[in-house]
Amino acid sequence: MDTTSVEPDTRPVVQVAYVASLELMKVSSLLPSNKNRSALVHTLARSLGLFSRNFSSMRTIALVPPQSAGFAELNTYHTKDYLDFVLDPRNVKSGDDGTKTELGLEDDCPPFEGMADYVRLVGGASLTAVKALQQPRCELAICWDGGRHHAQKSQAAGFCYVADCTLALMALRRLTEQGPQAGPARKMRTMYLDLDLHFSDGVSHAFHQTTTGSPHLLTFSIHHAAPGFFPASALASLPTADSDPFTLSLPLQPGASNRTFARAWQSVERVHAAFNPDYVVVQCGVDGLAGDPCAVFNWSLGPEEGSLGWCVGRVVNEWRGKKLLLGGGGYDSPNAARAWAYLTSVALGNPLSPDLSIPDHDHFPLYAPSFVLDVPAGNMQDQNSDEYLETVKQTFDGVATVIAERMTK
User: Which of these, 29, 17, 39, lies nearest to 337 by C-alpha position?
Assistant: First the structure.
């Protein structure tokens, strides 16, 4: 045993909980829409040294194994009929076809071997991240296998079999904080920010308000919306004077680039300042990055102003409160692994260089032809005009004013 004297580490410890396990990686890699993506994500993060205690002098990472969600935890949102079916492994091959159709288990969400374990573990992983955030030292949690924002209360949808985002938000919504001088407890405010290419219909519909109270949860989705583009929803449009100011959407046109996101981010900042949340949950879908098979946006990874990394960096480094980063869409698996490794380094306060070479590891050949970390923008034309972005700004200036007024009532 090495008995060499070591100076005690007197740095203030801010902990980042990284929710992962071999079991979670294996079942997530079975997801039909993202075969083996989870394995790429976590092995690249490890090969880049992100799990080392010495990676960052600002924040230390803690690997947290997920706790599998029980029926009662999943049933806080999902219906009993849905859970009875998806949690029974026999229904993968022998389940009634009519029931499968009713529950959305067809087309883009076919039943698959391991589905029951997947629902329990992915749902449990995001809930584990919420529990980690309740520890005093933990300021940030990461669950890249979560972020399934299309799943509905009683249906699978859009490659999503479990509404882990909604379950996590419901858990956060139940949290309270003791008032000053042992006064009455105060409900915590939570902001959900969705950066996926697709509208967060499952989450937005779950929390959409029709009352005029002052909710303690706000959802904000930045996405593409167009006729025929999934998912179709009346909530996917820009806010109006009559819409719920706590269920927000910012649709962008094809080719959205760093420039467009930098302009749009001004509205995000206005809304955040007006709502002033205690917790922020960011769904970091990466299907808007250039090179994704969806081929709609022309977003880059970072670190330029307006890039994905820049946006997430603003949240984790400049906004107050605790944060939860979730995964989501992303159908070029090596690029998804690149993106979430880079965002992990941003969350740890030590951003990796986009020009960094991919280390040699099991999946190294998949990172051809560049073999570097960056996901650069392409040549797609940005169709978001200055006039449209000015309309966005004016719309959200009005929304932020309404939110600020509502929060003082």
Answer: 39
Contact at 8 Å (CB) between 338 and 300? no
Own/partner long-range contacts of 232-237 (Cβ < 8 Å, ≥24 apart): 233/199, 233/201, 233/204, 233/205, 235/199, 235/201, 235/204, 235/205, 235/208, 236/199, 236/201
pTM above 0.85, yes or no: yes
The yes-or-no verdict on residue 3 having pLDDT over 50 is: no
Q: Confidence class of residue 212 from pLDDT cuts 50, 70 and 90?
A: low
SS3 260: helix
pLDDT band per the 50, 70, 90 thresholds, residue 298: very high
Residues that are catalytic: 150
| In contact, 289 and 380? CB cutoff 8 Å | no
Retrieve residue 114's tokens.
């391991």
Residues 6+ apart with CB under 8 A from 21: 65, 66
Residue 261 one-letter amino acid:
F
> In 172-253, at which residue ranges do the beta strands (DSSP E only) sit?
176-177, 186-187, 190-194, 217-224, 247-252
Domains of the chain in start order, with CATH, are 15-175+186-407 (3.40.800.20)
